[in-house]
User: Fold these one by one.
Assistant:
Number 1:
Amino acid sequence: MATLKVPAQVPSPSEDAEQLRKAFVGWGTNEDLIISILAHRNASQRKLISETYASTYGEDLLVSLDKELSSDFERIVMLWALGPPAERDAFLANEATKRMTSNNWVLMEIASTRSSLDLFKVKQAYQARFKRSLEEDVAYHTSGDFRKLLVPLVSTFRYEGEEVNMTLAKSEAKLLHEKIAEKAYNDEEVIRIITTRSKAQLNATLNHYNNDFGNAINKDLKSNPEDEYLKLLRSTIKCLTFPEKYFEKVLRMAINKLGTDEWALTRVVVTRAEVDMERIKEDYQRRNSVPLDQAISNDTSGDYEKMLLALIGHGDY
Amino acid sequence: MATLKVPAQVPSPSEDAEQLRKAFVGWGTNEDLIISILAHRNASQRKLISETYASTYGEDLLVSLDKELSSDFERIVMLWALGPPAERDAFLANEATKRMTSNNWVLMEIASTRSSLDLFKVKQAYQARFKRSLEEDVAYHTSGDFRKLLVPLVSTFRYEGEEVNMTLAKSEAKLLHEKIAEKAYNDEEVIRIITTRSKAQLNATLNHYNNDFGNAINKDLKSNPEDEYLKLLRSTIKCLTFPEKYFEKVLRMAINKLGTDEWALTRVVVTRAEVDMERIKEDYQRRNSVPLDQAISNDTSGDYEKMLLALIGHGDY
């Protein structure tokens, strides 16, 4: 469930655009006004505001935001205003293939937690914006075991029906167990099963694994807890089967880190606020014995904090 | 250019459906009537006929055809009537992953010669019909080097713009040449370049290869002419850059073969009649010094021959 709160009476896109323009011009910038508007409009409403703003003031809303805002607050507002989720994901994925901002986790996360059709839309948006395919950029900028896992992961168009073949689940659970027992973590059969099977089928396979061999697969994949490839493999499995648990952990790590990982915090809040942030908040509180909004308040400040809290549905609205 | 000939005045779908019904009932089957209708309607017209037939006679057109026709003529009419190209490709691809009819060439051909969006539609049709993804079936039913090439080939959503990065083309041509010189034909870099780059980019890379190293890449890939993987790799490159040459060769081999390969002949005629069969016919005549329709006439007979000739636009209409 989403945490985004939209008012019962939404102002027209031209009223919103006008208010935003007011927030930008004159003495200083009115950050509270920006938050009160943008943090309470859904993706299609933001799209309309953006279009109206551009046609009324002859300037892209993102350009105005870029001029007026800075640092973490700028990044969260820009990502939020960037357009439909597919546009934002395409932007994040592209950043993740660039040398200075390369990030296998972001690629894995986008490929594994979006629906098949949403991932396809990300690929279309990626091509329209960058004039290359997501697949070629991921393949070009990764190497070794990471490439072996990530390229099929971003390429595949997974089936999403609920049909499950239990015989296959049993035999593939056995196959996974054999390979893992041999420490063949990058074996092509392991990668084939994880990157091509439907989430329902994979879930059945992993249940068989757990029942037939006594451990959850991710426990067996912890032989070397600091191995970066194994970490990514475990997270992929988590994203495909329990995405909210994965996101809870990313938030936990981002907040607990000395100095806070604002990029991760921003990314999860912005990409999940309209999807399953309610569920992630529940898991967060259960796992950390502190509500997410309180943890965020303790760790962040100013307009950045306000924007985060608004997006996770903090307080009355 | 297509070879399909559609009359200037097309009868209504219900007239066509009625005529087809007449061709099925009573003494024997009127094959000429079936050909005169179906072989002269385009994909969307056939779809309407099919829908009208089903709603009027309470039976799927394919079921009626299956009852009335047999052998090679049955297969070509069924494949032609099967529905939009994506449905037919999904059917052919599924056959190609089955044990008794497995065929890596068909998978490669569908993945490499369809547009990115058409390939995506094949994947959607595949999932709707078979309740699994094309990717998982291909990955499950292939192995070794064939899997290494085919899985990314069917998975990728290639960029289709004309933009070409010449610096990249030069460096990737060099990389391909190095790997081929080492006989590392299944090297992951070779496969990455072939399976992820846009057709325009790949073409630029292969031109550089030819200019900088003195041979066309497919010549350098002929070190062991009978190696099945190398054959498939060469054909993939041909499909991605000169599809009509590839199809000419499939037709040539199918016709020259002792006993004729009707499956290949049918497949190429049915899948290209509405796309580029005119061009393939030109290439065929140039390469074989005999027109394709004459070669087909010499090698086939009866209703099957008539249907093939109608689809390649033989004679006046």
Number 2:
Amino acid sequence: MEPLKVVLEDNEIPRQWYNILADLPEPLSPPLHPATHQPVGPEDLAPIFPMNIIEHEVSSQRWIDIPEEVLEKYLIWRPSPLYRARNFEKLLDAPVKIYYKNEGVSPAGSHKPNAAIPMAYYNKQFGIKRLTTETGAGQWGSALSMASQMFGLECRVYMVKVSFEQKPYRRMLMNTWGAECLSSPSEMTQIGRQIRAEYPDTPGSLGIAISEAIEDAVTSENTRYALGSVLNHVLLYQTIIGLEAQKQLEKIGVYPDVVMGCCGGGSNFGGISLPFVRDKIAGKQVEIIGAEPSSCPTLTRGPFAYDFGDLAKMTPLLPMHTLGHDYVPAPIHAGGLRYHGIAPIVSQLLRLGLIGARAFHQLDTFDAGVKWARSEGFVPAPETCHVIAAVVDEARRAKEEGKEKVILFNWSGHGLIDLTSYDAYLSGNLVPYELPEEEIQRVLKAVENMPKP
Amino acid sequence: MEPLKVVLEDNEIPRQWYNILADLPEPLSPPLHPATHQPVGPEDLAPIFPMNIIEHEVSSQRWIDIPEEVLEKYLIWRPSPLYRARNFEKLLDAPVKIYYKNEGVSPAGSHKPNAAIPMAYYNKQFGIKRLTTETGAGQWGSALSMASQMFGLECRVYMVKVSFEQKPYRRMLMNTWGAECLSSPSEMTQIGRQIRAEYPDTPGSLGIAISEAIEDAVTSENTRYALGSVLNHVLLYQTIIGLEAQKQLEKIGVYPDVVMGCCGGGSNFGGISLPFVRDKIAGKQVEIIGAEPSSCPTLTRGPFAYDFGDLAKMTPLLPMHTLGHDYVPAPIHAGGLRYHGIAPIVSQLLRLGLIGARAFHQLDTFDAGVKWARSEGFVPAPETCHVIAAVVDEARRAKEEGKEKVILFNWSGHGLIDLTSYDAYLSGNLVPYELPEEEIQRVLKAVENMPKP
């Protein structure tokens, strides 16, 4: 019988990341300066990121070596196992084989350390002493806290207020790894104080938290900012997921018909899918689908435009699908993936028809997540529940079409620190929220005035 | 370079559990009936456990086959990886090599499912429809909730009140797996109601929760009780840990000088160590050491006597090191491992000089745990912090003696659902509690009146 999981030895870990910029049929439009709207060069980014990371951001080299020091840390939990979800398959009773990469085996419980480790390493190499970042549900903040500690950097995390309050364990985890975690908007930055004065009841947003983290980085000594998603270098570092999955599937002679990931900023989706997009560009038949929340439908409803990454318009303008930089999902949404935009790379792939996207209601995602936990054991993060809902949906389609399908998806993390969301779901405190059409119209109108790529 | 971790393929998983009863130089004294003080036979245990499990409890067969249905579930996370703790070694700067079994990779985050899965399976086979159990910190209750769900059994968990209140995520996790979790003492049992009436402020104890779970099991239809530690069959099922570790160490040509585990009821310590005890009985040089909290010093201070497993004296009398069945650790103790007794097998091994034991203060255990998290990444469960403190201590000894040592220990689980304990530690709310000598004297006196094995 085919094994339940495919493991790789330490020495089988991929030694290079894959850079899709080398293979894109149409290059990305350049980021624009927030004030002048002129293309930004590496030097414009230098106050925010160290130059060795900026080089990765703009590189068009196809393969980039993973430094030994990074590999050493990766090996703490990588290569991550590839699983066959036999029990979930039985439950679905559809003609599908389901494989998943279990990124929940990392110490932080998600895929986020894949990017946090190299970022901490490169900042350290560049002489930086302190990192700032933002976090929504807390996965990224936890990962960067751990990575900073491992390379001897200080770390401060601005955590979106609503999550900070709903998920106290996340702060505790970051503290355990020696980092500082503040509720955002905070009193520590000008933009934070300004928003608190203007909107004392704001639940916060990733856009606000990013503004705070960047302000802190550019106004503090020896400090840089680290972003957990969206940018090219983040997706680059995450490709280790898809590269490992390809090795593992090859071992058992399988190639997927469908590759799936959940989509917030695009880091885990990009991580699993970009090596398969490469195959697709080269002519291989494979469907690649991102799953997002219907209350933050960036890919399925957001226009493609230049937009800021943050509320305070401190970041460059990025060419991406966006709901507008002031978009804040309804507080009732408990599933994470709340970012208003999505990676330019993912946006470009959608425009080029190389990937597709589907949106799911939160009740369907938690329903899928609970079914998963009760059959496969592992409790998925609320974010991960979105891709599980997409798998359920894909299985239903396969059954209707009477077509056999092999699905590969990225199980981006476990939900053991997010159990309050499950508690809300199981006790009936989540509602079947539907984004009001007037809100969509407001978004479309707001983005209409942004420059077009 | 030696790899950071040694993984086994699915098909390398051990197919049998190891039963130390076949090799004990002196057999265990039999359990006694709680009322008559006569040895109990299998039939006396039948209202509590199904007969197929009772057979394992009393078996003297050296190797017991693991059923295919159990192996299938084990393979969800087993074989668990064996790690080399290189970063922690660097921190200690002592002549030690440290290997650990990472049992935190299970869906429940600890070693407990190793026993929960076969228990749910055997109960199901025996026609049982519902399981009851108790849980302290929550590791066992979580594991049995998951296992029950996997085999279609109902499950109710009585959780020690102080933990129920300190660790709300544990209840949420059990609920997510479809189980019911009640604060103990509860209103659901006679003994629970009685204790609530008599001691309205009791923090609860494992002894009380066990009484409740057993009362529920013996007074409900198609229901049996499942115990997560102490008994022979539990340690038997846990030997999969040590058996895998032996295979993994053999692959890299290493044999440990010291094998360590933390000790509550003895399940994870027994799990890692019994296969090595077998080697030791056969003449191999290996030191085997259990680590326990100094506020519940069963092995290091508790006399060896017959004692009840629970407060209400419903269980048979077991021959074990015990602090008395009414012993309740001070509520300030945050580290788990609160049981008043310990497995008869572990007690017997200590009597025979085949193992040793050391006790650690809670501040030292959390100090070790935080150092571990900040170097190795994975955040250990508070219980696991005890064995890490023992490793720190052993490394110090090795340094003092100028002697090279290979240490193997069981990293019994992660602490991601126990972060409130870390929070209490990091914010200075834990005290360096020392068990008062008068309490020790009270214990010695209380146990003096129990029958002697």
